[in-house]
Amino acid sequence: MKLGSSLVSFFSASFLLFSVASARSQRVRYYYNAMLYVFSLGVCSTIGVLYPLIFGIFGQRYNTNYVVARSFYMIAGTLIGYDVSLKGAEHLQTRPGIILGNHQSFLDILYLGCVMPRRSVIMAKKELKILPILGQFMMLSGALFIDRKSRTSAIKTMSEGGARMRREKLALFAFPEGTRSHSILPELLPFKKGVFHLAIETQLPIIPVVCENYSRIYDSKTRFEGGDLRLVALPPISTEGMTDKDTDKLIKTVYDAMLKQLLELDQDNDSKDAAFAAQPPSRDPPRVRGLAGLFARIVGDGRNHQHNRTIRRVARDEDALRANAHGGTQSSDYGLVSSAHSTNGVSAS
């Protein structure tokens, strides 16, 4: 009993210190938010196992993905601080249909909470089936597991899945890129053909969903911040009357539509950045969100300290350049202004 109490006290104190540090350091916040994300995944995967076991007898098995996706969005979105907006939600009500989304990183799981409809299944690679808890949740929810090493097996799985979708009036979600792009640019990887063969075989419409490039708030090595994400669901693309000969044409149609929307979202971000630079607000909005943001409001986020430290470093660099007989009298003459301005935000220590 005493040992248990000591362990609780130790972990509580450690979490508190971790939380305080995350408020003042982007580097610490990266690991802090990653921990919260994995915690949310564990909780929601457990929900995904229990829900179909309990409610499956009432015919609710195919609502599992909807419940889990919404739960994950609410839990992880709140803890880390995400606000996702969706345009074109009416297109997601097409039944049965195939929903395709662009795949940037594992953060994409978050936006599924806004696009995953009721009575839906997902298409995933067979390797995910063996993962503890997550694999069991996916199996119980009716996922289509594709063996990418066996064309025969993949075709059989998709054929059976297509028949089930029509019979049960299900929606299916898949990432047509097949893997994460991890791109800092608004771009798409080449699409895999499997899901398009399924769409043509079943003659079901495709509903493309595009998530804006979010490298400004997340990359896999240095940055994991909360922020705003925008999604756009495009009008359904019909596959009626198509045959396997039309597969490449269908892929190009969907690819071009999604890439165009992705670029438009990026251009809109560029316009907002330009407007901000031309007329910045008198007071910076809070930069840190979620649980880390809560602690930032209590202990501060360290931005002023970091900014002042960089200003002093810029001054030292100017003196060093002048001492070496370089010309110029302003910070901009030395290419140092951007260094100072860049720290008028979250500490990167």
TrEMBL record:
The chain crosses the membrane at residues 35-55. One of its GO terms (biological process) is phosphatidic acid biosynthetic process. Residues 1-23 form the signal peptide. One of its GO terms (cellular component) is membrane. Residues 327-349 have a biased composition (Polar residues). Keywords: Acyltransferase, Lipid biosynthesis, Lipid metabolism, Membrane, Phospholipid biosynthesis, Phospholipid metabolism, Signal, Transferase, Transmembrane, Transmembrane helix. Residues 97-214 form the Phospholipid/glycerol acyltransferase domain. It catalyses: a 1-acyl-sn-glycero-3-phosphate + an acyl-CoA = a 1,2-diacyl-sn-glycero-3-phosphate + CoA. InterPro entries: AGP_acyltrans, Plipid/glycerol_acylTrfase. Its EC number is 2.3.1.51. One of its GO terms (molecular function) is 1-acylglycerol-3-phosphate O-acyltransferase activity. Residues 324-349 are annotated as: Disordered. NCBIfam families: AGP_acyltrn. The HXXXXD motif is essential for acyltransferase activity and may constitute the binding site for the phosphate moiety of the glycerol-3-phosphate. Belongs to the 1-acyl-sn-glycerol-3-phosphate acyltransferase family. This is 1-acyl-sn-glycerol-3-phosphate acyltransferase.
